[in-house]
Amino acid sequence: MTVQLRGLTWDHPRGYRPLEAFEESGVRVVWDRQPLSGFESTPLAELAETYDLLVVDHPGLGAAVEAGAILPVEDVFAARDLKVWRSRAVEPTWDSYRLHGYGWALPIDAATQTCLYRPDRLTTPPATWSDVLETPGVVLCVAGPHAGLMLLGLAGDRTGARLLERDRAVEAIRVLRAVWQRSDRSVAELDPIGIHELLAESNELLCCPLVYSYAYYGAVGEDRQPLAWSEAPRLRPADRLANSTLGGTGLAVTPRGYRQVLAVTKYVRGLLDVSTQLDVVSTVGGQSATAAVWASDVVDKAWNGHYSATLGTLTTSYIRPRFDGWIAFQDELSERVRELLDDASDPGAAVDRIEDDYRSVSHG
What we know:
Structural class: alpha+beta
Strand content: 5-15%
Low-confidence stretches: none
Strand order of the largest sheet: 2-1-3-10-6
Largest sheet: 5 strands, mixed
Helix content: 40-55%
Number of strands: 10
Mean pLDDT: 95
Radius of gyration: 20 Å
């Protein structure tokens, strides 16, 4: 007898191919797809009534928890399983799904902002933002939330006391303004996927210094030009932590899914098995959150060095706040950063306003 479950993932091959390629005996998951933006526009409580499994991102956890749309992983899976899965996860993906003392999803996809470039035309990617100013054919990813996420990557406060480190944020705004003035603005509406596709096809654009990486575009043998990545450029040469904001996705279980908890558990054990991640997920364009994949020379070579080039950035990336209301604030932050790129207002005053508004929202 086969138990059928229903899941929802995002509509890029990286989001659906691994899940559709994996099969677990006795359990069949029918995966629907929607744009990443759909997870924010459709009420999570509504999705939870339809699906057993949801692919989510960590910044939306607060809203999902408040809506009762997902369950703590501790209520669904055995402690021994969670201990094993945590030990296998590449840092800091596991911690990004913790909120209020519980885990709310299992990391299945790992990503962070890195430097994307055309290796056939740019032999030395920029290592610092000063280098970015000297690099030809630069484009910035500023669509949707990404302008704000650049600022967080460069100046997010890792202590949790504030949203931004003020001095770094002021410096970052000035640098981003300078880069924006000499970058191609005709692509300002493109998200990270669009940026990757553009660089793969363009003869003029060579580099996006900070954008969420997609190993999928490094495939050798595809019709398009394989792309390459390097660590996120440093705002200051002495920076030790990555100037990057963590992305990726996790697998969450809804209350509806708990009614088939034995099938859910069996499916997830199979999906998160290291052999599945190496032999299935990584071969069809998935970007696994399993550390063994990031350490595999075979996988790395297949995707044009993506994993070795970006692992250092991934493991020290900034983790965003996850409280209910963060997503709306994140969108507002990005809109403000886009405005700051185009004007000459005092960046210090702008950072102070952002901080005041963040404090108001985060402390309710």
